[in-house]
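One record is set out below.
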Amino acid sequence: MEKSAGPRVATGQQIGVGWTPALSVVKALAALAEARRIGGEAVYWLADEDHDQLEVATTIGFQESRILRHRFHFQAPVGTATGWLPWGPAQQKDAEALWGEVPAATEPTLRGHALALGEPLWRRGIRPFSPTAPDLRQPIQGELARWRGLDLERTLAAQAEALEAAGVRFGLDPRQQAAWFSLDPASGRRRRLEPGQPCPARAWLSPGAALRPLMQSLLIPGLEAVVLGPAERAYWRLTEPCWERVGLRPPRIVPRPSAYVLPPGLALTPAQLEPLRAGNWAAFLAPADPVLPSRSFAATPDPGWEPALRARFAQEAARTRLRLEKLDRRYWRDQAAATLGLDPERLRQQLFPLGLPQERVLPGLLWLRQDQLVDRLLDQLGGPAASILVEGL
């Protein structure tokens, strides 16, 4: 990359089918908003040397209002990096069956599929960046070999113990996960390297997740800031003592906001998201003291009854109250629906499919194919809010 292009803001995600999860779109647009703010360039790091095939192949589609889980199949050996997974007519047909029209891949790989789907982002000025491009990766092999000779594994392990002692959670454990892998540029096979194990001939050194931040700064000149989600910010702390050892300056970290796409015309605030997720329909109404079904039942046993009869009556009354409390919930749901203009349970399923925020479940393709929605997201992602709510189309 050019060294004179000004400050750069980077973000990225392991490439997934359909740009799953949609939070990768939020990260890309947040990086673009930050780059515009500082007068720089946004770079999207296509994490195409990761090799979690199950994660990148798993996504969802829809059949009317039903969520369909789907797993794409790739004819590739276990351990093949995601950028080398084949994307051919079978995968394209599967994608179109799930989501309708899908842009054709720019090359017959999952990386080519991701590049094609990301076109709305590239058109707005985000630069796609593959760390496995041979003309970029081959020249840094000597520097990566130097890093490996510094025994950064020990530094990472010591930092993990220090963070653990301070009660800090850091997501991945460098004492268990490999710091270095080998990556065969011909086949895409990625294999763990144990300490002291030589990298095979004609293979590239490939840093593990804990050391990837260092390689990112090495490959992207002028990297000023990175947009990271909560889990990434946690494990980036592992690298804190490594930057000085390799002779690099760490970039500034910009927290990634969360984004929710709402049905058109719906008025909702970030403070209402958690009550919605929890199904607390009463939170959507003004304080009141309604006559609820459970409160309407006030039967008590006659003092003259035998103890056994009074005990049986109390059991049946308790069961009846439990059933009536379910009607209480129905009452609150109906009242919330009148206030919101739609069924709150359906809204919950839309914003929290499978019980998770929609950005963690939906494929980003569903947002990327809507230009107006992408622009609305970009407009709001430039602000300080931790959560943004954007009206859908």
Observations:
- The first strand starts at residue 8 and ends at 14.
- Residues 120 and 291 are 53 Å apart (CA to CA).
